[in-house]
């Protein structure tokens, strides 16, 4: 006849009626703390009935923790897959972010593959996902906490070539700087400038989007940590295309490696400043610095100026925002 399981000693009675019952109600982190407490109890009285009972409960607790983690991983992966299948690429990434701290299961490879596939889908659409969340916007006495909704943003500034496709498809007027119906070849890969907020908004709508709001733009530029610049809190004269960099002209978007935000968005500090528009506003905001900006502090993410809705500027361009993933595209 098999020996009966050891009965709980007074030292263990505080763990019953069942650690497992409480494990089911706790987070994996709290469950892990309980497992550590059982390990300490078993080590304090080696070779005793108390140690044997602790070891038994430890095995049960460890299995419960592992089962709970595996169950949560399966639920999270199923939700991420469901969202991906519905075309909700950003929310699918948000689901996968919930796997943090739950790694180490047989489905880690599946999660990595899904994350890679989602990143590829976003890259094919030329956008980054900026999750919803609280952000501290503004600086010094103007700083304020703001809840900013989720949004997809263009990875790069819109180019002359991209704007020319819009002109050809819609019959919108070409830009005076082109000197004709299309931009000269040397302008094609450069960020388009001189467009008004109304023109930029029409382009964005044609592409299925809109102009970003000032809060969306600033939150994306500062990243999750709320940094002053896309690269961090320390000024760096070599980190973006401003007047002090010596280029004296705009560069093809993405040319300056350091001027990339935590979300993967390029040129938010320099190259060309960008239009942002609050719905219903009487004027657009101009965010970020440009190749003409003479003071490095004016390239900070919180720096803003105003521009009339029907005004353009030779150093101001734009990128688009989207409430749903845009279609795949082969150019900008």
Question: Could you describe the 3D structure shown?
Answer:
By secondary structure, this protein is α+β, with helices and mostly antiparallel strands. The protein folds into two domains: 107 residues, no CATH class; 196 residues, paralog of FGE (formylglycine-generating enzyme), CATH 3.90.1580. It contains nine helices and nine strands. Strands 7-6-5-8 form a four-stranded mixed β-sheet, with helices on one face. A hairpin with a 6-residue loop joins strand 5 and strand 6. The chain is elongated and about 90 Å long. The protein starts with 9 loop residues before the first helix and ends in a 10-residue tail after the last strand. About 6% of the residues have low confidence.
What is the overall shape? elongated
| Helix/strand class | alpha+beta
What is the CATH topology descriptor of the largest domain?
paralog of FGE (formylglycine-generating enzyme)
- The strand order across the widest sheet is 7-6-5-8
User: Helix proportion of residues, in percent?
Assistant: 25-40%
| C-alpha-based Rg, rounded | 27 Å
Distance between the termini: 77 Å
CATH class division of the largest domain: Alpha Beta
Helices, by number, come to 9
Strand content: 5-15%
